[in-house]
Amino acid sequence: MEYIIGPVLAVAISIAFSEKRLRTKASINALSLQELTSKIEDVGNRSDDYNKQIPTQVMKTLLPVAKEVSKLKQTVGI
Which DSSP symbol is given to 46? Predict the structure, then answer.
């Protein structure tokens, strides 16, 4: 009798333990997935903001340089 009940009980306990462990890992992965999704959305929003700001920053940087180059051309006579 003990030869049958012992292994069956061990299998039942190991299956229950494995199931519990897998459920906790699945819940941790779900939370991690939600966190990563929110981070990806934040990065996307920042990227959109940077893409809107870059042309104005480039113009602010290059406009004085272009003016000075045109003054230099006039001075040199090119």
Answer: H
Structure tokens at 55: 């042309």
**Could you tell me the two tokens for 18?**
């494995």
Q: How far apart are CA 72 and CA 6, in angstroms?
A: 95
User: Which pLDDT band holds residue 78 (cuts at 50, 70, 90)?
Assistant: confident
Does residue 78 sit in helix, strand or coil?
Answer: coil
pLDDT beyond 80 at 26: yes
For 76, the token pair is 């040199």
Q: Which among 28, 20, 42 is positioned nearest to 50, based on CA atoms?
A: 42
